[in-house]
Design goal:
Blueprint (H helix, E strand, L loop, with lengths): L2 E4 L2 E4 L3 H4 L2 H32 L3 E2 L2 E2 L3 H39 L16 H32 L1 H14 L4 H15 L9 H27 L3 H10 L3 H39 L4 H11 L4 H30 L9
Antiparallel strand pairs: 1-2, 3-4
Helix pairs in contact: 3-11, 4-5, 4-7, 4-9, 4-10, 6-7, 6-9, 7-9, 9-10, 9-11, 10-11
Amino acid sequence: MNSSAIEGRKLPAWNLAARVPFAGRNWLDRAMQRAVLPLVGILAFLLLWSAAASNINTSLGQFPGPAAVWEQFGALYQEHRQTRAKAVAFYQRQKIRNAERVAADSDYQPKIRAFTGRETFIDQILTSLVTVLSGFLLAAAAAIPLGIASGLSRALHSAINPIVQLFKPVSPLAWLPLVTMVVSALYTSSDPLLAKSFLNSMITVTLCCLWPMLINTAVGVASIDSDLVNVSRVLRLSPLRHVRKIVLPASIPAIFTGMRLSLGVAWMVLIAAEMLAQSPGLGKFVWDEFQNGSSDSLARIMAAVIVIGTIGFALDRAMLALQKLISWDRDSVTH
């Protein structure tokens, strides 16, 4: 039989959507939107990438396709494991040597030296994540309170708005030399836990991702529904209680919009800052591979590009999940 009867009508066999019950169609639609279509897009991208790479020859050899980049992911992971094994062996030798020296001379003070092997790709990823989150949190600690104060006070908004508009479009390329010189002049410690290179990158990130959070927070606070403000006045809430009970819940969507924008800016700025300042991190890894000029350099750079994009996407999703967790209207937080 070439047709089926649904709701009293004869439908052709090829009309699959009409033959599936309504709930089943919804499930199919969701599966198409969330899994099938993105997978098709990724496969199409990989095919185009592979076809284009086979036709591009550079001074360092053929542009890497997906297979070459995947191979480098494995090589980079193996390098990380080998370096970690060397570090473990180094510390074991150091421990044995110190124990022998103490056994021979009870007055001997054991010396502990840090492993000085080259940072691996995974080490660079972790360094970049620590730096960007440090710079972002520092910016949030300054921008959100100032944005709330600016949104509540027209006088304060008028006072700081010219400064915000002046510095908002400044590129990290302009900030980095100034930050480097100031840090070198004021910070003289040689503590490896807080190196100058880390401070340079972190402060540059802070200066560049400050503004989206400040502007969005101020706009969100200034546009709070007047009925909510009137309720606060009727209840005679103190200024601090007004912020905690009225301002923050009502302006959370705008605050998180600014935070997501700032985190994206911070991640992009960090990579550029690490490349220019030669600070440890993914940006330095990319620049070192470019300077290295080996036959695998392009594939390694492409692997870093994919990791940078993946981490940027993951950071945005993490911020969205945090917004859903904190927001009082979770259903409105969709993307």
